Structures are given as structure tokens and as C-alpha cells.
Amino acid sequence: MFDMPRLLIVMSAPAQKLPDGRLRLDVKFLEGLPQHADSWDGPVECLLWEGATAIPFGRDCDPAQLTVPITVLPAGMRLQSAHLSGADAILASADLFLTHDLPAIVDARIPIVYTIEYTLKTRLDILRLGKASPVRKLRSALWLLNTERRMRRAFRAAAAIQCNGFPAHDAYRGMTRDAMLFLDGRMTDRMFATAADQATRKTRLQDGHPLRLVNFGRLERMKGAQDLLPFARKLKELNFPFRLDIFGTGELEAEIRDSITRNSLADCVTLHPPAEFATELVPWLRENADIFLSCHRQDDPSCAYIEAMGCGLPVLGYDNAMWSGLLLASRAGWSVPLGDVGRLAGRLTELGRDDIAMASDAALDYAKAHDFETEFAARMTHLREVVARR
């Protein structure tokens, strides 16, 4: 088709233009972008939109120093053919509604591959968990339904889709002849728990020390952060010895901090600031935690599952569609009915130490089979195959 096909990546990553000309970008996005350039046999460029009011895990950078050129469009600007000029293939995030017009403005010979994370159900669940008035929620729900119809039309016109997580793959794989499943995460080969880490954890479990649970990520309602302290209170009522460490920031941070004090939980619950993933959080998880506590009340394909598993942590969580699918595939933890905090605490008290150790090994084995390099290589191979067909 093309000797050196130019790949245009159209992303939903948050971006801010700073007064000094620099950009503030999401750290996870910044770390993944060079991988595209290294894995593609041709030039790579990226298109983003301005508009993020805050980027909790952000980094300021000089655009001239980036390995992949980035164009940042004004918030809400519709895509035009001029923005896509010269592209030989397009990898676009369908989670951003502005990309749904691509099939209408791109030459039919240019393959469009969409990535998708959130299903309509997930978006409606997130809307339900928010604080907007009933009238605003109704209007937003109608907008989501209309956007879903447009997105499905775009999928049917696309060359392929790449689905991050089981829920998206189940929902949209019938929209196109070529849909692949991948599990997004940041765990690379050098980050995984070692045999020594696993042995230390097993010894700690066998010696009967209080179980150490951990939760990390955005402290927001859509992530179930409102259930962390009720869970801890329930364990305290049951006189079950434990420690819960929480890493993160977000809209519920102050509420969680106040609740720790108000409910006299400081002896068993600690709220930490966000930790740098590779150099701080991962070593801490490998050395100190026994179980990852997930309270997600919706189906988003959080990378926290696979990242915690890569540190040797089995998952105790609600039976949302993402964790249910991952649990079925990995056997690396336990689930309880969605939103049942009491059952979540009760399930923990029922776990045998040998069962936790076995689930720890299963978690690590599954995560190793889905490390960042493997998943990313599969995605890029798939993308090259799609382009080659054209």
C-alpha cells in the first residue's frame, strides 16, 4: 500500500496549553506515546483536544522535545479534512464523540481503526453515580443514546476496532468484521512481583498477620471510592484485623480523610497521596500488600486490576462486567454483588490464607501473560494487518 505509511493517532487524552507554550499531558499517555513511534514503520503524529480543567496525574512538557508531534485543537472543535491531511491510517478513540465523524470526512481508501473502552451501560452508570439533578441526568442520558447511535454507525464503517476490556468487546465486536480484545495496563517485564516477593507474602499470610488491603487510583464515585470507609467500618465492627492503604486523589479525598478521623480508623486505614507508578507504587504493592480492594460500581476497564495482579495481588471486588470477565479468565480473586459493602467485608473474613496465596500466584501468572509489551505489540500487529489489507 504505502512504503512508509503515516499513522495519525486521534486520542481522548486530557491536554492543557500552558502560558509558556508547554503542554500539560497525562503521564500514562506520555509514557505510551513513544511506543507507537517505535512500533510503527513510518511517521506517527497525534491529535488531541484542549479542555481538561485538571489533570491529576499530569506532567508538563515541551512539545518540541516529544518523539511524536502533537497537535492540540481547541475544545469541542469538529474534525475537518485539513486536520487529517497526509494520513495513511488513522487510529482513533471512539470514547471521544468528536471522532465519530471520521468515516464521513476520510477517503474510503484510508483505514480507520477505532479503540473503545466505555460501553453505553458504563456511561449511563457513571451518569447515575454523579451529582447532577434528575433533569440534567435525563438530558445527558438522551445525549448519550444519540451519541451511541452515531458511534455504532462509525464502527460499521471502520476497518476494525480494538476493544479495551471484556465489556467493550462483548458489546461491540458484532459491529465490524474485525474486533480485537486487549487489556490496557502499565506493567512491564521488570515491574512484576518476583519469586522472593511471593515467598515473603506467603510467609506473612501463613504467620497470621493482619491482612493488608490496598486501593489506588482516582478517589471518585465512579470508582467506588465512597465505599472504602464503610467497608473498613464493617470490618472493624466484625473485629477482623486488617490494614487498608489508599493511594490517590480526587473529589472524595477530603471526605475520606475526614471519615478516617471521625470514625477512629487511623489505626487501620491510611490515606496516601498519589505515588509515582513505576518507582513508588509498584514496589510498595509488591512488598506490603496482600489483596487489591476494588469497589468499582460500573464496568470501566480500569488498568488497576491487571496492574495490581502483576504485583501479586488477588482482587476482591464487585461483580461488575469487567471484573467478572477478568475473574472468569484468571481465577485471581473473588467477587460479591455490586454495591453490597457488607458482603464485600464478609467475603474477606471468609478467605483462607492458603486460598489467598493460590489466588496471588494466579493473579501474577495472568498479568504476566498480558504485560504492556505483549498487549501493545498485539495491537500494533493488528493495526499493521488492517493497513496491509487496504
Automatic annotation (TrEMBL):
Matching InterPro entries: Glyco_trans_1
Keywords: Transferase
Sequence intervals crossing the membrane: none
Gene3D superfamilies to which the protein is assigned, alphabetical: Glycogen Phosphorylase B
Keyword Chaperone: no
Keyword Transferase: yes
Domain Glycosyl transferase family: 205-355
Entry's Gene Ontology molecular function annotations: transferase activity
Name of the protein this chain belongs to: Glycosyltransferase involved in cell wall bisynthesis
Organism per entry: Paracoccus alcaliphilus
